[in-house]
Amino acid sequence: MTSAENSSGHAGRLLVRCLAAQGIGRVYCIPGESYLAALDGLVGSGIDVIIARHEGAAAMMAEAEGKLTGAPGIAFVTRGPGATNAAAGIHVAFQDSTPMILFVGQVASDQRDREAFQEVDYRQMFAPLAKWVAEIDRADRIPEYVSRAFHVAQSGRPGPVVLALPEDMLSSIVEGTPAPKATLPSGRAAEADIAAILDLIERAERPFVIAGGPGWSADAAAALARFAEIAEVPVGVSFRAQDYLDNRHPNYAGDVGIGINPALTRRVREADVLLALGPRLGEMTTSGYTLLTPPDPLQKLIHVHPDPSEPGHVYRPTLSVAARADQVVRQLSERVRPPALSRRDQVADARASYEGWQEPPASPGPLKTEHVITHLSRSLPENAILTNGAGNYAAWLHRFFRYKMYRTQLAPTSGSMGYGLPAAIAAKLLAPERDVICLAGDGCFQMVAAEFGTACQYSANIVILVFNNGQYGTIRMHQERNYPGRVSGTQMVNPDFSAWARSYGAYGATVTENAAFPKALAEAMTAGRPAILDLKLSPLAISPSMTLPDAT
After folding, report:
1. Structural domains in the chain (count)
2. Which of 112, 132, 264, 277 has the alpha carbon at shortest distance from 211?
């Protein structure tokens, strides 16, 4: 054992050495006095420290890195308000099944349970939002807790872990040796399960595949394409998993999510065998639990999920397989055979309905969102990463953009507003050679607008498209449907977003008509600095399929 492996120093340094031993190269944080020793430990550690403007955004950056890499993203926040702010990112990680670890400063152990300054019981606070919540009371157990956190965050259904760090524990002198990198289960299915899946698919008349969930990779996406081609099955993807299969592939039938193609709805409902490769089959993917009938679906359901407690959570499966979807699809692609009776017509019909759904109806106003999205789809490099938060603007993106490569879509299945900008920053820092485009509504952007300063500070040269219609459009749509003509709480007064960009020395421009968008986008992408395009849209363009008057 070398002195570097087991050296005296305060516990903050040991904690950082444990992170380095797990391969961590970047953390996101808002600094706080409750974890000064950890900040000190990061000095000279080789781990990059990204300072955000708000703890919620720091947590979302860490979640986005976890989503992109498959390894836990790391965030540090201070006690009390810092932790409560970060809860938004923890919720994203939990619902999106993303590996992530949040370290929270805590009051000194001799002040616990006195309601000391900013004291919170994090075990109670985060219990519904995280896979595991713990407080490290002994500095010599830091390697044990960190090792367990990395195993828990990545095993089974991945998710967030929260570790609280009492201030006196973190500053105490300790000796310790970091544990080796986490060793994870293979996630492979038993051969009998693979044979059973293939038997059900081969004998089906109208099979359909829904791919989604955690743990996928580019190799798994390629295996999905091979399996679909040989098995002659159409493939849909779950909510915000549109990059799991090249959207140009002849077996790709569209996204089984919010705003679903009506023809695709019918196809899922009429399938006799439904193979769910990884998704939880939650509200968004099942159109409010209507595509399948709970608890006993009409379709023969094969549910593959890494958490053995997930199949049967809502729907009783015909066959339940506790394994990672990426491993299962590789196993399936190696053993699949063509069906005895060709299903090529079904695949062609599903593809034709997807192509027809891609034809955009014209929305009101001289600048149309469908024009923006179709131009992005045609002009961006295949490996460009697109991020977004929540809002009706994203419905155009889901419907009209064609994703060509795995992990080019970065969006929250939890439907969290404000996600797009922090996610874009994390993506650009992780892959500076790739183009990163953030799409955000004017309300979505302003929840995290201060993070544009983070992008500028770290030269994360992202392009932000602000879809500016002066309102919380999704809520206004629902408002008109339920209480027509009674506008309440949905109107906004916005700044000049392009001037906001220029105040940072970044690129900013305003776009008001279709013809101006291609040039503005090209200039923003080649500006060599972060950029904001303020897209002035008609408030009547409320969704791809309706205008605001149609909503009443």
Report:
1. 3
2. 277
What's the pLDDT at 462?
Answer: 98
What residues contact residue 443 under an 8 Å CB cut-off, 6+ apart? 391, 417, 471, 472, 473, 492
Is 4 contained in some domain? no
Contact predicate 153/214, CB 8 Å = no
The residue range of the domain holding 250 is 191-357
- How confident is the model over 454-486, as pLDDT tens digits? 999 999 999 999 999 876 667 777 677 788 888
pLDDT tens-digit readout, 389-405? 998 899 999 999 999 99
Task: Give the pTM.
Answer: 0.94
User: Helix, strand, or coil here: 174?
Assistant: strand
Rounded average pLDDT over 514-521:
98
HSE, CB side, 13 Å, CA atoms: give it for residue 422.
37
Between CA 164 and CA 185 the distance in angstroms is 27
Q: Is residue 185 part of a domain?
A: no
Amino acid identity for residue 141 in this structure: R
Q: Supply the CATH number for residue 50's domain.
A: 3.40.50.970
Pairing state between β 173-174 and 9-10: antiparallel
State residue 116's pLDDT score: 67
6 pLDDT higher than 60: no
Assess if residue 180 is contained within a domain. Answer: no
183 located within any domain? no
379: left (phi over 0), alpha (psi -120 to 50) or beta: alpha
Distance (Å) of CA 70 to CA 104, 214, 218, 517, 522: 22, 8, 12, 35, 32
